[in-house]
Specification:
The structure is a single chain. The chain has about 120 residues and is an all-alpha fold. Among the domains are: about 50 residues; about 30 residues, no CATH class. The protein contains 5 helices and no strands. Helix 1 crosses helix 2, helix 2 runs antiparallel to helix 3 and helix 3 packs across helix 4. The chain is elongated, with a radius of gyration of 26 Å.
């Protein structure tokens, strides 16, 4: 029997206030919340989620500013979506290199002559 997951509402202002007033408590609460989310995931996905969280934490640690960390995480996300073996490939929404490309058709382009003495308008 599957147990329904209940979601606690996210209060951004409360988290922001905690981060400003007590960064250590914020980090503990952030870590606890992330671990709860990972534990609620299917057992077969937990190790992958922990590895991903480790990667995100390293990005945060090694970035000069929070904005740089955000940009680096965003790049990681897009790579996971549109990169080789990413989400689009798995969903087969984009043709993979192994798939044959549709045949291209060629055509002869005919020149059109304008009226004598009249300049073309674009």
């Amino acid at each position: 029997m599957k147990v329904p997951r209940t979601r606690t509402p996210f209060d951004f202002d409360q988290w922001a206030r905690l981060a400003r007033q007590n960064p250590e408590a914020f980090e503990r609460m952030r870590g606890h919340t992330i671990e709860q989310a990972i534990c609620q995931a299917p057992a077969g996905k937990r190790q992958r989620l922990r590895c991903l969280q480790w990667q995100l934490d390293r990005i945060r640690q090694t970035s000069r500013t929070p904005m740089v960390a955000c940009l680096r995480m965003n790049r990681l996300l897009w790579k996971a979506v549109i990169g080789e073996g990413g989400l689009l490939d798995r969903l087969a929404l984009s043709p993979s290199p192994a798939e044959p490309q549709p045949a291209r058709h060629s055509a002869r382009i005919l020149p059109f002559r304008g009226q004598p003495g009249r300049k073309p308008t674009f």
